[in-house]
Amino acid sequence: MKNLKKPEDAARGRRGFTKKLAAAVIAAPVAARAASAQTTPAPREPKAPPNPQPTPAPQQQPPRPSPAAEAYTEVARARFGEHLSAEDLARLKREMEGNVRAADRLRAFKLKNSDEPDFVFGA
Fold first, then answer.
1. CA of 52: how far to CAs of 49, 55, 57, 106, in Å?
2. pTM, to two decimals
3. Would the pLDDT of 45 be above 90?
4. Which one, of 76, 103, 105, lies nearest residue 90 by Cα?
5. What is the Cα–Cα distance from 101 to 64, expressed in whole angstroms?
6. Which of 1, 11, 24, 96 could cysteine-pair with 69, CB 3.0–4.6 Å?
7. Is 73 a member of any domain?
8. Does 22 fall in a domain?
9. Which range (42-56, 87-101, 104-118) has the least confidence?
10. Residue 78 phi, psi dihedral angles, 5° rounding
């Protein structure tokens, strides 16, 4: 006949194990901190002098906007021109150029038919 434990002994064993596990989790960072405090800190090396700042290069003109960005800007000017200032139109042209370049980079990245979408759907 096998030596069967009483249910109370099994519960005490699980509880005891859980308490020891919790104590180990709490004590581990404390022990690590105490161990690192006992070691002598390494001597600090003198800091190197800061690097001299490079002289600014002459300002280059930004690249000319693509024809697509200019066309998009013209559509916006024709449609909303009375609400936009010259500064708004210049900013819009820069943003359209950025959008056109981003679209070109995305278009250049070729996908295979077996590539799956990169998203997680959850309901």
1. 9, 9, 15, 38
2. 0.43
3. no
4. 76
5. 12
6. 96
7. yes
8. no
9. 42-56
10. -65, -35
Residue-number span of the structural domain to which 76 is assigned: 67-108
Q: How many angstroms separate the CA atoms of 32 and 41, rounded?
A: 15
How far apart, in whole angstroms, are the C-alpha atoms of residue 66 and residue 79?
Answer: 20
State how far the Cα of 110 lies from the Cα of 77, in Å rounded to an integer: 34
Tokens representing 112 are: 């295979």
What backbone torsions phi and psi does residue 92 show, to the nearest 5 degrees?
A: -65, -40
Total domains in the fold of the chain: 1
DSSP the chain: ---PPPHHHHHHHHHHHHHHHHHHHHHHHHHHHHHHHHSPPPPPPPPPPPPPPPPPPPPPPPPPPPHHHHHHHHHHHHHHGGG--HHHHHHHHHHHHHHHHHHHHHHHS---TTPPPS-----
- CA–CA distance, 17 with 24 (Å, rounded to integer): 10
